[in-house]
Q: What sequence folds into this?
């Protein structure tokens, strides 16, 4: 594990992400909030980046070189964002997808040590297998903690699938309007991924603008940009509920709403 701190604030919000740059793409709202308040923001990146896609001037970069590049990019982003904690667990993606106790122990130790009020991670409806694996590991690790160590909220964030389809009662809207130029600077750090033509930085911010515009049909927009999350706290409150049951409930709710509108 590699750890850094670029701010003296205690960690109030902690984002646990699969890959380098996932934190910035899915948790810009909490990052911005921490910059404007006394609340500290912490980031945990689980994988080592060795399997990252590469093109352009990075096409011939070896796995070992890519790991170092991605670590340095993430450190630079944490400096810009003034993170209270940056922990890089450096796990191979293949190991993460298999699950296992070592990852759970690392997550639990970080939660117990920093005691965040809110934990952000990937959501159960994401289409990236590694994102799903990290989400499930976070849920499993939190369920093994004593109640006194649990965060108040667990939020699953959108990356490789939007959450605009969810019922508003389950949706968590996070304001990402804060300084668009700063958001671009923060995300633009990850050049090794953007260089190859995958403009994640532009795509994510485009989603935010669409979310804000299409959030409510009969009200004037109160934010110019929004990212969505799903409140997964019920999975901590009821440990007998399976992740499949939780996901099914949300999907069934969408089905019911669509069919009701059709008459």
A:
């Amino acid at each position: 594990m590699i750890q850094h701190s670029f701010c003296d604030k205690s960690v109030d919000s902690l984002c646990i992400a699969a890959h380098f740059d996932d934190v910035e793409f899915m948790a810009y709202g909490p990052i911005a909030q921490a910059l404007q308040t006394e609340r500290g923001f912490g980031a945990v990146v689980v994988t080592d980046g060795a399997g990252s896609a590469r093109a352009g001037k990075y096409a011939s970069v070896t796995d070992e070189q890519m790991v170092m590049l991605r670590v340095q990019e993430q450190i630079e982003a944490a400096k810009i964002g003034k993170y209270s904690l940056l922990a890089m667990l450096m796990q191979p993606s293949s190991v993460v997808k298999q699950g296992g106790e070592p990852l759970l122990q690392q997550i639990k130790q970080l939660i117990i040590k920093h005691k965040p009020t809110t934990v952000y991670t990937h959501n159960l409806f994401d289409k990236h297998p590694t994102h799903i694996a990290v989400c499930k590991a976070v849920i499993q690790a939190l369920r093994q903690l004593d109640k006194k160590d649990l965060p108040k909220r667990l939020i699953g964030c959108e990356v490789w699938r939007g959450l605009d389809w969810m019922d508003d009662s389950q949706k968590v809207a996070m304001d990402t309007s804060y300084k668009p130029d700063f958001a671009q600077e923060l995300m633009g750090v990850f050049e090794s991924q953007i260089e190859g033509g995958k403009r994640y930085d532009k795509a994510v911010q485009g989603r935010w603008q669409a979310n804000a515009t299409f959030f409510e049909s009969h009200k004037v927009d109160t934010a110019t940009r929004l990212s969505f999350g799903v409140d997964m706290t019920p999975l901590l409150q009821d440990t007998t509920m399976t992740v499949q049951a939780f996901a099914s409930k949300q999907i069934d709710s969408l089905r019911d709403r669509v069919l009701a509108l059709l008459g």
